[in-house]
Amino acid sequence: MKVSDILRVKGNTLYTIGPDDPLAEAVGIMADKDIGSLVVMSHGDLVGMLTFREVILQIQRNGGAIGDTRVRTAMDDAPLTCTNGTDLDEVRRMMLERHARYMPVMDKRMLMGVISFYDVAKAVVDSQNFENKMLKAYIRDWPAEEEGAQNQPSL
């Protein structure tokens, strides 16, 4: 399974913010849209990723307040990325290794979408459920052996 399979099911709604926008605005967007991340874009280029983790760390550094902090101060400026063709096993490995919950999907310099660890886990579970269903159907439809054929040696 590839990243493109997840994006095809998930859709292509993207939420972005600029690096010089107020962090408070980013938090407002994340709360209003019920999302855990924003892609930080500048002049059409991916420059970072802002997740609830970075927001919480920045609030802690600010003594419990957002203040007039800019997105640039809190964002991850070197986020993991993948492509549409990246295999899901590779994405899982990368996300687990870096403790990343969100990963931008890029096609050269163009942002194609964002996948979450939830999206990856759901795709794996759905794939396993489908495989189990097919195996059970195969077993249920197993051809019955004729009586007497059980005791005869096969050639």
Brief synopsis:
The chain has 155 residues and is an alpha+beta fold. It has helices spanning 3-10, 23-33, 52-61, 71-74, 88-98, 117-140; strands spanning 16-17, 37-42, 45-51, 102-107, 110-116. The chain is 44% helix and 18% strand.
Kindly list the characteristics that best describe this protein.
single chain; 155 residues; alpha+beta; CBS-domain; 3-stranded mixed sheet; two-stranded antiparallel ribbon; 6 helices; 44% helix; 18% strand; Diverse_CBS-Domain; CBS_dom; CBS domain-containing protein; CBS_dom_sf
Folded structure, characterized:
- By secondary structure, this protein is α+β, with helices and mostly antiparallel strands.
- The chain has helices at 3-10, 23-33, 52-61, 71-74, 88-98, 117-140; strands at 16-17, 37-42, 45-51, 102-107, 110-116.
- A hairpin with a 2-residue loop joins strand 4 and strand 5.
- The longest helix has 24 residues, at 117-140.
- Pfam families: CBS.
- Residues 6-66, 75-131 form the CBS domain.
- Keywords: CBS domain.
- InterPro entries: CBS_dom, CBS_dom_sf, Diverse_CBS-Domain.
